Structure formats: C-alpha cells, structure tokens
UniProtKB/TrEMBL annotation:
Family: Belongs to the bacterial solute-binding protein ModA family.
List of residues binding molybdate: 48, 78, 154, 181, 199
InterPro entries: ModA (IPR005950), ModA/WtpA (IPR050682)
Gene3D superfamilies attached to this UniProt entry: Periplasmic binding protein-like II
GO molecular function, one term: tungstate binding
A matching Pfam family: SBP_bac_11
Record's keyword terms, sorted: Metal-binding, Molybdenum, Signal
GO biological process: molybdate ion transport
Name of this chain's protein: Molybdate ABC transporter substrate-binding protein
Keyword Metal-binding in record: yes
Domain of life where this protein originates: Bacteria
Species of provenance: Veillonella montpellierensis DNF00314
Length: 264
C-alpha cells in the first residue's frame, strides 16, 4: 500500500514538472523575429533616396522586430554604387537613380527582378537670398553646381538640360562638380554657388535653405526613373522580403510622403 501511495506521489510530482517545463511564459521568452536572426542585409541606394529609404528600413525593422544593425544602407551616386557592385560589393539590393546604370548591370547578369521603383523630377535650385526665378537666369550665374556627369545621374540629366538650352559650352568654366545631389544641395544652401540642378525631392527636404527657381521641361532630359533590383549572387530570403516590403503599399506610402511619384 505504501509503495502504491509513494508511486502516485512521485507520478504527480513528475507530471507537475513536465507541465511546468512546457508552460513557457511568453513575456520572458525571446520576442525577436527568428526568421532573419543573425542575418544582415546590405542595400546600395542612390543618395537622393536617403530620407525615404532610411525610414522604410526603420519601419521594416520595427515590424519584423529586427536589430538596428541588421540592415545597412550604402548611399552614394548611382554610378559609384554600380561600380562597387561590379567589383563584388556585398549588397543584396540596388536602387539606382537612373536606368542606365541598372542596364549596365543587367547586361552582365549581375541583377534580377528589375522593375521601376519611383519617379522624380529635376529642378533648378538657388540660395534663399537669390532673385533668380527661371532657367533663363543660369547664364548670369558665376558658379553653378552639378553632380559628376559620369557617376551621378542628376549630373547627366543636368548636362542634358544645358545641352538642350545650348548652354553647356558657355557654362563649362563655371561648373562646380559634386559627388552626389546631397553635395550639390549643400553647395547651394551654403551660398558657395549661385545655383544647381537637384531632384525635386531633395529640394523639398531642403526647403528651409534653398529655393526652387524652376522645374526643368520633361523634353529637356531623360525621364527620371529609379529602378530597383536584387543582386543575383547575394539574393537571400531576407533581401526578397525587404524588396517586397519596399515596393509594396507601406513602402510606397513613405516614398510618396517624401515627394516621389509612383510609376504607372
């Protein structure tokens, strides 16, 4: 009889242990999203996307409960980023400010899932103190900022506008070349130059320090299309998931807030 009672007590004790072990308190467990745990995603993005793409990444990390250092974004001129990718940079996603640099990577089969991401506009900006109010004021400017034509799409678009106006040769000695549109914006806002070409989204972000003197005619330069793509050799489920998020409704809402328009 004693053996039977002892057996029952031991059985109940063991059962209690098993139930206790199986009942994990959700408030003390690891709440991190385990899907991409210990993974890092590197994105190469055009400099003009800095504000919008940073916010998209921040919102994505919150939704997925990721650490801040799990997404790294390298911002630079699109031509510079394209060269880095050709040389083996570890990026998994590339967003260019033009189609030319993306097509160069497509021809080398270095990217996949290429599609239009956003559209932008090219505008003439001047310092707040300037009285310039049209493209016709450009010849009167002594110093004019432009992104490097070879590596900065906005610089190439700007050259196309100056060519369209037959001003490229006239302005050659007055142009101050910059590494990206952010640098052009800084030159103008600081009064280091009399004007420059940047994207409308950058001008809106810097509205307290620069003035939009004029918008450039659509027929004066190539359409400003930003394509997005996965980098073939570095494609992961993490990259695909972020790609879908950035091109989906939540990503688009943030992009529109920054003044970008969506491709039809």
């Amino acid at each position: 009889m004693k053996k039977r009672i002892v057996g029952i007590i031991v059985g109940l004790f063991v059962c209690g242990l098993l139930v206790g072990c199986g009942n994990t308190n959700p408030t003390t467990g690891d709440s991190k999203n385990q899907t991409f745990a210990n993974q890092t995603l590197t994105i190469s993005g055009a400099a003009s996307l800095k504000g919008a793409l940073t916010e998209i990444a921040d919102e994505y990390k919150k939704e997925k409960n990721l650490s801040d250092n799990q997404i790294v974004i390298n911002f630079a001129g699109s031509g510079t980023l394209r060269q880095q990718i050709e040389q083996g940079a570890p990026a998994s996603i590339f967003i260019s400010a033009d189609e030319k640099n993306m097509k160069m990577l497509e021809e080398k089969q270095l990217v996949s899932d290429v599609k239009p991401f956003v559209l932008n506009e090219l505008v003439l900006v001047v310092p707040k103190s300037s009285k310039a109010s049209s493209l016709q004021d450009i010849p009167t400017m002594n110093r004019f900022a432009l992104g490097e034509v070879a590596t900065v799409p906005a610089g190439r678009y700007g050259k196309q506008v100056l060519d369209h106006m037959n001003l490229w040769d006239t302005m050659q000695d007055k142009i101050v070349f910059a590494k990206d549109v952010k640098a052009v914006t800084a030159y103008v806002s600081q009064g280091a130059v009399d004007g420059g070409f940047i994207y409308k989204t950058d001008a809106l972000a810097a509205k307290d320090t620069v003035t939009i003197a004029a918008e450039t005619p659509a027929d004066s330069h190539d359409m400003v299309v930003y394509p997005i793509a996965l980098i073939t050799k570095n494609t992961t489920d993490f990259a695909k998931d972020f790609y879908d998020y950035a091109t989906g409704p939540k990503g688009k809402a943030i992009l529109e807030k920054y003044g970008f328009t969506m491709p039809q």
